[in-house]
Amino acid sequence: MINKKYLATIRTQILGYRTKRREVIKSAGDAQHFAKKAIFAFQRDDKKVGEECLAQSEKMLLALQKQFKGDSALFDEGAYLAGVEEYVEAYLFKQFCDGKELGKISGLPIEPDTYIGGMCDLPGELYRYAIKSATAKNFPMVKRCHAVAEEIIGELVDMDLTGYNRNKFDQAKQALHKLEQVVYETSLRA
Question: Which interval of the chain is the signal sequence (predicted)?
Answer without folding.
Answer: none
